[in-house]
Design goal:
Largest sheet: 5 strands, antiparallel
Number of helices: 9
Number of strands: 20
Helix content: 10-25%
Order of helices and strands: EEHHEEEEEHHEEEEEHHEEHEEHEEEHE
Radius of gyration: 20 Å
Length: about 350
């Protein structure tokens, strides 16, 4: 039986630690719970928002509608052979705990995505990525439920239309489907070890790792992330607030004249990606604090809530940052965090 609560404080349900209230709030633990919820007037008539770990969201005001907290859990091997396996994971599972589970079983493919906050269901929506690996690289399919009809559908990898930090579930099909589970294609042996992105290789050398494995890669990624990113349990934040801007080669050639030291890297489709953190730092924002909010001292991509900051002020800060980057470099920054 679904229990819908009223006027619920959301501070503990978002990693920014923003105080905001939901007019209605409920928790679902199974697909059956969702099927029951879909039939209720509060679901049909109210604005609604599905919430996972709350690690990629900024509440700028109270939510005048229904928030559905996703707590679907469970993992199961769908099929396997000597080399690979397909693992189906319910969408409410914690992402980092899933990575640790896979490492314990020596299943490779998501070790570079260690310590990314949030739930499994959010991973394909955002096409989460880090250190040379993206969610699209390991997804076999995504199981969804139509929030109007309750019908179940399976999207294969191609149908998800994955892009940089986006998918069809964030664009054309936004709010039309609830992701119930994700099936991952993982390696059981002959793992593809990706250490050529970011500081992984240097960290492995510093740790004097004798043999590079999926476990040692994960350990290196965790060490790097902990050194650069604040713990949300200590300082409110949602990780990287902005996407790294992607430019055509011609755009990059023109803009690089503004600052010839501008770092960059090329992508698969020969476009050029610029680190947003570097752009923000060049505009003088790194470590800047304004009352109870600010920009993290070690990573300019991360906006933080030092205690009693509010979402509206953080959003205003992000707007000022984006405006200064546009003025200095003629580059438009897009937010990675969902603004509500």
């Amino acid at each position: 039986m679904i229990h819908v609560q009223k006027n619920i404080q959301l501070k503990s349900f978002n990693t920014f630690g923003i105080k905001a209230h939901a007019r209605y709030f409920c928790v679902i633990h199974s697909e059956q719970d969702l099927e029951e919820l879909i039939k209720l007037p509060v679901f049909k008539n109210e604005k609604r928002l599905f919430l996972g770990g709350g690690s990629n969201i900024l509440f700028t005001k109270d939510f005048d509608g229904l928030i559905i907290k996703n707590e679907l859990t469970g993992k199961a091997i769908v099929e396997q052979d000597e080399d690979r396996l397909l693992l189906n994971v319910k969408s409410g599972e914690n992402w980092h705990q899933l990575v640790m589970f896979c490492l314990k079983n020596d299943w490779g493919g998501i070790e570079n995505l260690s310590l990314i906050p949030g739930t499994v269901g959010a991973a394909p929506i955002q096409n989460i990525g880090a250190y040379g690996v993206e969610m699209k690289d390991v997804i076999e399919n995504v199981e969804v439920i139509n929030v109007t009809s309750g019908a179940k559908t399976i999207f294969n990898n191609a149908a998800c239309s994955f892009g940089y930090r986006e998918s069809i579930f964030k664009t054309q099909l936004k709010e039309k489907y609830f992701i119930s589970s994700v099936t991952l294609s993982l390696t059981k042996k002959n793992h593809q070890l990706n250490i050529n992105y970011g500081a992984i290789k240097d960290t492995l050398l510093q740790q004097q790792v004798a043999a590079i494995t999926i476990q040692t890669i994960s350990d290196a990624v965790v060490k790097i992330r902990k050194s650069k990113l604040p713990d949300p349990s200590l300082v409110g934040n949602a990780g990287s607030f902005f996407k790294n801007p992607t430019l055509t080669y011609d755009e990059f050639t023109r803009i690089k004249k503004i600052d010839t030291s501008m770092p960059y890297y090329t992508t698969e489709n020969q476009s050029v990606k610029i680190p947003a953190g570097w752009l923000i730092e060049q505009c003088g924002w790194k470590g800047k604090r304004i009352n109870n909010i600010g920009v993290h001292q070690h990573q300019a991509l991360v906006l933080v809530n030092y205690g009693d900051g509010n979402g509206e002020d953080i959003f205003e800060l992000s707007t000022q940052i984006a405006s200064s980057v546009k003025d200095k470099f003629d580059i438009i920054l897009a937010t990675e965090v969902n603004i509500v």
